[in-house]
Amino acid sequence: MKAVDARGFFSSANALEFEDYLLLDYVFECQGDPELAAAHLCSEQSTAQWKRVNVSEDYRPRFAAKVLSLDTQACPSGFSSPVVELGDGEVYRCKVRIAHPHANFGPRLPNLLSAVLGEGAFFAPGIPLIKLLDIQFPDSFLSAFQGPRFGIQGLRERLQVENRPIFFGVIKPNIGLPPEPFAELGYQAWTGGLDIAKDDEMLADVQWSPLAERARLLGAARMRAEQETGVPKIYLANITDELDRLIDLHDTAVAAGAGAVMLNAWPMGLSAARMLSAYTKVPMVAHFPVIAGMSRLPFFGVHTRVMTKLQRLAGFDVIIMPGFGARMMTPAAEVQACIDACLDPTFGNIKPSLPVPGGSDSAATLEAVYNLVGSADFGFVPGRGVFSHPQGPAAGARSLHQAWAAISAGVPMAEAAKDRPELKAALETFG
Amino acid sequence: MKAVDARGFFSSANALEFEDYLLLDYVFECQGDPELAAAHLCSEQSTAQWKRVNVSEDYRPRFAAKVLSLDTQACPSGFSSPVVELGDGEVYRCKVRIAHPHANFGPRLPNLLSAVLGEGAFFAPGIPLIKLLDIQFPDSFLSAFQGPRFGIQGLRERLQVENRPIFFGVIKPNIGLPPEPFAELGYQAWTGGLDIAKDDEMLADVQWSPLAERARLLGAARMRAEQETGVPKIYLANITDELDRLIDLHDTAVAAGAGAVMLNAWPMGLSAARMLSAYTKVPMVAHFPVIAGMSRLPFFGVHTRVMTKLQRLAGFDVIIMPGFGARMMTPAAEVQACIDACLDPTFGNIKPSLPVPGGSDSAATLEAVYNLVGSADFGFVPGRGVFSHPQGPAAGARSLHQAWAAISAGVPMAEAAKDRPELKAALETFG
User: Fold this and answer.
1) Quick check: B385 and B181 in contact, CB under 8 A?
2) Is A242 close to B115, i.e. CB distance below 8 A?
3) With a cut of 70, which residues of chain A have pLDDT below it?
4) Which domains occur in chain B, in start order?
5) What is the C-alpha to C-alpha distance for residues B410 and B403, in angstroms, rounded to an integer?
6) Which whole number is the average pLDDT over B307-316?
């Protein structure tokens, strides 16, 4: 691209009508002129050819993505990850803000992904490494999305749980365990105070645990637990499967007593979630497989904040995400950014999604997670912390309530554990 | 995990019935004991808990993923990409082959992805960097998939094209260009000899170019071109959109005269493709946005070979992929591996997909691509090389045939160009 042509991909912010644009923040590492690289980045994601041969026209004013700002920093030690040889030239790391006209593709998630994470982003000349850090959506774009049907408040009403985190538990073991003992574990955890007993995200509709049978047994166990405890419970069924079975599986699970359904968001596709959200009458929960494969590195891929916003747009009432602590290899600031993306009140008229930062949790980690989240509006999702509790799943669930009571009363956890054997055992086993 | 428990995630190859397992090849970088890391990798992707508390049972023999081989190499200079601090300890780069029991989830693409690229891969303790390099599928798994309906031979029959590459062209400009001039460009290219005129992968069903109108005009232009040239032509419509519109858009486009449909495979989800493949009566083409965001780095994410195999499994008759040359920042060996994955005759009963390695192609690059592919069984997909040809799109298409005639006759390209003005101009403009 000639320098004179590159200028067509730059704009001052006040020359634009912001309702017509998505604001995209990328960090990229380039070799050669950063301004030219940024122009390529805009060109490739919008009007790579902006005119016909021998025709006097220019589609850039209306259709081009445009650089609004560009911060450049030299990287004398080269690229942050190994990349193919591009030739000689200085390496720079740049932060760029781009205004992308959303009428180029409209309020459609697959087309949005194709524009902002497609050939434009990953094959812009001179830019082997790039990460999409954030998208800001104008109301004109957001208003086309329904978002979560229930949101946090809707889920709280279904569970009659206010002013505390919602206690999920991943029934374990799961791969290999037949439906009957699986349901028995769920039952025990519910009687101990668990709100939502859930399938693992790898548990499918398989021969050794058909979803119809699993849901029937879990549905019955749930009703028993509700009758005994007097409070509503939810069985969260993983209905991740081939798309042509999705509605059938959903109907089967819900009819049998699943009070919520889980989709592995990225393997199913965000559009499958958006479709199901318009159909289902129960809360919809996202799990996170595959996403880390394009979000972990600081200077390549896509930030989980973006993925969280897209999952909220797609209609997930609950978003399970890699949580705090070394186990999940995710910086605390990144987890916080995803929680914020779930809760942000300035996201059009779209309800908040319940954030569920997860990973090796138990009564021993509840206080730290609560302090990091900064409110009780989150889900807490132990697996072993409930189901490998040495006194059994009911005791595991009870230990969560005991930990929360201690937090609420301002009593040190070790102090509270003294006369609460379930909490004591949880701290000893998992602490 | 204790060392004694880790042994349950290792096996010798001859102890296994291979029809029951997928073979997964990963490369990972770990800190600390590589054997323990490999055991975690297996455990986390299968039976993380293999028994209930206080129950004597072990789900590992049947359900555990198992290490078959592990090659370890010290990395004294540390990790190849920046990762979160894991602590002290030697860094190793390891190649591991894992046997994963596919009955854990069954022949379902979203569940397969969740198992092999999920929490198991990206959150195994001690392994911040990992890349899935390959999957080998036994016939017992492949037999559940239909694969491409048409495959290469079916597409050749529709086009009546044998013994040469199939000539695609991306109509340009596209973002911003209204349907009428867009169809006129397609018409011109067809009359010059293009086989398939296609929508750009970013071109959606938008207000300034509604797919119904675009397909109607392209369908009419195609018929005109077929009548004039006497050979079949295809308009390839991009029907990437929200899932709940997919079938309607497909039907609209095909009824209006689209002879093939394109999906952006990863943004739509592979399962959407598998569903559409069972429904459509026209060839289905995959485009590659987003994939590079998890495949570019040598030691993180997933190899495009895997993505190509999955797209073939999902039923794509044609797979457009980043091609040869510096422009696409993809090593030639990787492109070759993807082409091989399309053509591999030992892939159950699944038909081959036509590989289309693309990126800044023209008559000037045809010979090099042909030599690298090693056969004529590929698609060639210029954009500018046809539609920015200085003598117009018909001349651009003609230049491809002239280049192919020269290759077939063993005439040097520069020689052939002497009395072929379209080829001459293509070499001068794009060479």
Assistant:
1) no
2) no
3) none
4) 3-142 (3.30.70.150), 151-430 (3.20.20.110)
5) 10
6) 98
